[in-house]
Each structure stands twice: as structure tokens, then as C-alpha cells.
Amino acid sequence: MWVASTTEMVLTPTAVALGKFDGVHLGHQRVIQPVLQSTRSAQTWGDALDSSAQSANPPAAPQERIYSTVVTFRPHPQEFFTGQARTWLTPLDEKVQQLRSLGVDQLVLLPFDKELTALSPEEFVEKILVQQLRCQRISVGQDFCFGKQRRGTARDLQLIAAKYHIPVSIVPLQTSDGQFLEDGNCGSFESLEYAPISTSLIRQALETGDIKTANQFLGRPYILMGVVVEGEQLGRTIGFPTANLELPKDKFIPRQGVYAVRVKILGESADANVPPEILGVMNIGNRPTVNGTYSSVEVHLLDWSGDLYGKEIVVQLVDFLRPEQKFPSLEALKAQIQQDSTVARQILSREN
To answer: Pathway involvement (predicted)?
Structure first.
């Protein structure tokens, strides 16, 4: 998949899904679906263009490839306005991986700066979508806003783009049970089950250890992906060696505590001694029993051992077992880890 950090690098013409797309959750996937026909000819979308529209927005030539394109912003708008760094459910490498798996041709990271925020909704469509991206089709979520002071709505985008004969799909908000919310119904909800899927609700679920809800909203397990680095090797002294995971600094970390997880070792698929998936128990926290002074992510692999230093692994979070706690002794900690391993094995065997 092609990744462009400026509009000068973009492959055109494009079919564009617009949004932040942090998490690439089920709602985002529905917004992306309408633009996944990247090889369709311009005749499909461009035959209705009149001569004035053609001069403003030249259509793709017949049989010319149209690139399915996700357009998002860097930095995150909230980070730009507050000046505070923001963590992501899907940092760039993960986002690329998820979009590639959906069949997206291209990711465009629009620089979110003063110049972009000064554009009116009409200017954004003309300068960015029409002139720079040669956009042939657009898809947005029902709650999408754009332009100076977020004045433009999804319906405004539809009306403005119509002047250039660019069709706009407005995708209604979706709940985790597959229902859709019409007319921007984004009020309060008694249960997450009936709330519209959103990045903020996924973050909220992860912060409370509600992994099942987060995974349901994502449509896949939440993952932590990083390189195994050398730790203090205290786990080895009590019979539970762990892989110490170094994560991207902008990765959103869930609630501290113990999790049942599945682990994949990247780049080891051809090794017959390494199973495609390994069951495990993960701890996120400061390790208070041994007076830890910094937060770490450590994974104990069940029924497998080997040298993982320097290897990249993917940890899929399946369930939250318990909060982190301080034990009176290493023996008590060892007994608890044994119990955690037993519970994790039971949960993971049911999930197969």
C-alpha cells in the first residue's frame, strides 16, 4: 500500500474515504467500503460530467485506474489544537497493516496545520479533493465535519461536491449489534451495546479493562505490537520467564493488570518449531511486588520457550483477568501467576 505524507506524492485519480480512522474499527470499515473499487473505469462515475465540471475536475480517462484512498490527518486535530501529544489505538504501522488487509490502495496523511484549518468547506473541496487528489468519489461518516471551525457537515460536503459531479456516500453511525443510527442520533446511551461505535468508546472500554467490548467494536482483537527487549529477568527466578515488549511511544496502553492473550512471532512462519499462535499471560504495570519503578509490558508464553530477543511479536488481547496488585512475597506472586496461567488457558481454549 502506498503511503503519502503530502498531496504532491498522491497517486491519482482517487476514490476517497475521509476521516481520522484511529482504530480502523467496524464503523470506519463501513466508511471505507464504498471506495474499494479502485480499478473501476472513469466511465462508471464520470459519464455524467458536463463540460464545465470536466474543466474543474477532469475525470479519469476510460480504463484509468482509480486508487482507493483513505485520507486522514497528521497530527491528530486534537493534538494540533491542544499542543498535547496523543496516543493512538493504531499508530501508523498498525494503521497501514489494517488498511492493507481491507484492500485499500493508498493512505494519505494530510498535514493538519494552520493553512489547512483556515480553508473554508468550499476551499477544502476545491483545493484538496478536486485539484490535488483528483477525487472521483467520496465516502464519509454521518458525523464528519470539516473546514474552518468545523463548519462543514457531511451533507454540506455532499452539496459542494455535487457542483463537481462527485458522488458522496454518507455512512450512518453503526452500533455494535449492527444497527444504524439515522439523523445524527448521537445522544447518551445506557449501554455500550446500543452506543454508536467510536474511537472514544473503544478507548474507554480499554481503560476499564473491558476487552470484549473493545474487540467487538474493533471487529478484531486489540493488539500490542513491538520488539522484545531485555528486561530485568526476574520472571526467570520464579519459573515464569517473560518477554519484555517495547512498544511505540504513541501506542494507547490499556488498563494496568493481567490479561489472557494470544501471541504471534513475526517472521517465524517458516520455522516448524514455532507455532503460528502461542497462548500467553500478559502483565501491564509497575510490578509492585518487586518494587518496580517504571511501567512495562511483559508476556509469559504458555507451553513454549525460545529466544525472542530482537524479534517483533504481536500480542492479541482476549480477556482481562485482574488488576495489578502487590503480593507479600515472591512465593505468593508465583502462586498467583500459576493461577492466572490456568485461568488464561481455560479462557483461550474456549475462544478457539
So the answer is: Cofactor biosynthesis; FAD biosynthesis; FAD from FMN: step 1/1; Cofactor biosynthesis; FMN biosynthesis; FMN from riboflavin (ATP route): step 1/1
